[in-house]
Amino acid sequence: MRITHFINQYPKVSHTFIRREIMALERLGFEVQRVALRGWDEPLLDADDIKEQDLTQYVLKDGLVGLLAASLQVMIKHPVSFIRALLCAVKMGIHADRSIPYHLVYFLEACQTFQLMQRFQSQHIHAHFGTNPSEIAMLVHVLSGIPYSFTVHGPEEFDRPQFLKLKQKIERAKFVVAISSFGRSQLQRWVDYQFWPKIKVVHCGLESSFYQGISTESEYPNQLVCVGRLCEQKGQLLLVEAAKQLVDEGFVFKLILAGDGELRQPIESLISANQLANTVNITGWISSEQVRQYILDSRAMVLPSFAEGLPVVIMEAMSLKRPVISTYIAGIPELVEPDVSGWLVPAGDVNQLVDAMRAALTASKEQLQTMGESAYLKVTERHDIDIEAKKLVDHIYKNEMLA
Fold first, then answer.
1. Which residue from 8, 147, 195, 289 has the highest number of Cβ atoms inside 10 Å of its Cβ?
2. Residue 78, SS3?
3. What is the mean pLDDT for each group of 10 consecutive residues in the chain (403 residues)?
4. Between vectors from CA 144 to CA 142 and to CA 145, what angle results, nearest 5°?
5. Residue 288, pLDDT score
């Protein structure tokens, strides 16, 4: 079977989970077409991402001229479905988070995607994210009749489900993937009960090569690492406040903020104002291998998020036998067990965050090893990418037979 994976931007530092899914599908014998809106000129650090960039077809690479040419050809060959999809795009723009002209652009992008899929002879399109990629996949379906599905990750989709028209997208889809039970519950809120069976849980997964060969006799330096985009969702400003309290208590440790993003300048200002330059370091964007090494060089991974789906980096840290400090939100408690594989705190509570970080910094080697082993067992059982990709395949085949 030939499947098209459609993404807004690919490859991308924060989209390793999509790459793993694609490669797992190929190991299962599927031919996977990578189609993205943009990303052909994205500077990349990871060798696997660079390979993926060469394999990806880009909808916007030829600009507006390419979109209009593709749309004209689709209009001539498929006039009825062209008008039907155009009207659908207009309806999607009414009371949406973006005005109708944006949705007309999505329609043009869908025409271009449809042509790429025709050349590939694709039989199914699967989009990642419930934002514009899922709408474009839906419009391709209206144009072509090719079934579509999409994965909702959160938290963006959960912030504005009505404006993103999740209800309409779910109702037209063959099936929809949530990455956690929490995510499924949030989608169930916005559709009638009769559509609930369409919503499936397929976890993001890890390849065994990522975590194989991890020593159980690790040393645990006084270092914590936070991996993620520097943004309001991830809570790094609160993390810097917590680090300040621990330094005032006399703790000497390193806190690595691995990532970059729109909040870098405010975070750097807070680090400077609290004289934490010797404690808190920001790496900027780094490769997957560098992320892996920072996790291995730390006692624990800390992610004090305010909003999430289920962060892949938590899975990665647990697979590397490192306990996790995070918050009681979204799908995180489904994976991290308090005092078993890490520490969970209420989101936004700096004092309890300090308590958890203190516990990690003062934990014995034996305690960290025990927690790390528990974390490893939980995540490798629940988030094996080959098992999860097989679930996705089963849903595609099942729904193809129903189509």
1. 147
2. coil
3. 96 91 96 97 89 97 96 98 98 93 97 98 97 98 98 94 96 97 97 97 94 78 96 97 98 97 97 98 92 95 96 96 97 97 98 98 96 96 96 83 37
4. 70
5. 85
Q: For 14, which DSSP code?
A: G
Cis peptide bond prior to 221, omega within 30° of 0:
no
Beta-carbon contacts of 248 under 8 Å, excluding residues fewer than 6 positions away, are: none
DSSP string, 313-351: HHHHHHHTT--EEEES-TTGGGTPPBTTTEEEE-TT-HH
Task: Please give the Cα distance from 2 to 121 (Å, whole number).
Answer: 7
Taking every pair of C-alpha atoms in the chain, what is the biggest distance, in angstroms?
A: 73
Residue from 226, 228, 246, 232 nearest 350 by CA: 246
Rounded Cα distance between 183 and 309, Å, is 7
Both tokens of 369, joined, read 């090893």
59 closest CA partner among 151, 121, 133: 133
Spell out the residues 6+ positions from residue 345 whose beta carbon is closer than 8 angstroms to its own: 304, 325, 326, 327, 328, 352, 353, 355, 356
Q: Which helix (H) or strand (E) holds 401?
A: helix 385-402
Q: The tokens 């991996």 sit on which residue? A: 227
d(CA 4, CA 22): 10
- Whether residue 318 contacts residue 324, with contact meaning beta carbons closer than 8 Å, is answered with yes
User: Tokens 């807004």 sit at which residue?
Assistant: 8
Residue 277 DSSP one-character state? T
> pLDDT value at position 46?
85
Domains of the chain: 2-205+384-402 (3.40.50.2000), 208-382 (3.40.50.2000)
Residue 301 is predicted with a pLDDT of 98
Given phi > 0 = left and psi -120 to 50 = alpha, else beta, which region is 259? left
The SS3 call for residue 307 is: coil
Distance CA 50, CA 395 (A): 30
148-152 β-sheet, strand order: 56-58, 31-38, 2-9, 124-128, 148-152, 175-178, 199-201
| Euclidean distance between the first and the last CA atom of the chain, given in angstroms as a whole number | 15
